[in-house]
Specification:
Helices cover 92% and strands 0% of the residues. The protein has 111 residues and is mainly alpha-helical. It is elongated.
Length: 111
């Protein structure tokens, strides 16, 4: 049983560290998971279920950050889509400009 307690204390410690990180950096679950090298599910379980048992006050603070992130999620997704299409449009414009310049050179040679 001794080994089980060590693992449990490690998980509890991780939950607290992750919660403090989210509060300090105001990060999303996805960003936090990437930073700590664990899955989004693990981070979510740490800060919603496990943390509630370990430190309810800290859990409430983290919950507020997660709810704020969730309410802003559609805005971040929209911005990402906008940037994606702006990049694609710039590529297309570059191609058309290049084609125009090439045709202009051809036209100049034939005049």
């Amino acid at each position: 049983m001794w080994g089980g307690n060590v693992v449990r204390s490690h998980i509890e410690e991780r939950a607290i560290v992750v919660a403090k990180y989210i509060l300090e950096k105001n990060t999303t679950v996805r960003q936090t998971a990437k930073t700590f090298g664990v899955s989004k599910s693990t981070i979510h379980k740490d800060v919603t279920e496990r943390l509630e048992e370990i430190n309810p006050t800290l859990a409430k603070e983290v919950k507020m950050v997660l709810e704020k992130n969730k309410s802003e999620r559609h805005i971040r997704g929209g911005m990402a889509t906008k940037l994606k299409y702006e990049k694609e449009t710039k590529k297309d414009v570059g191609w058309y400009l290049h084609l125009f310049l090439d045709l202009n050179k051809v036209f100049v040679y034939f005049v």
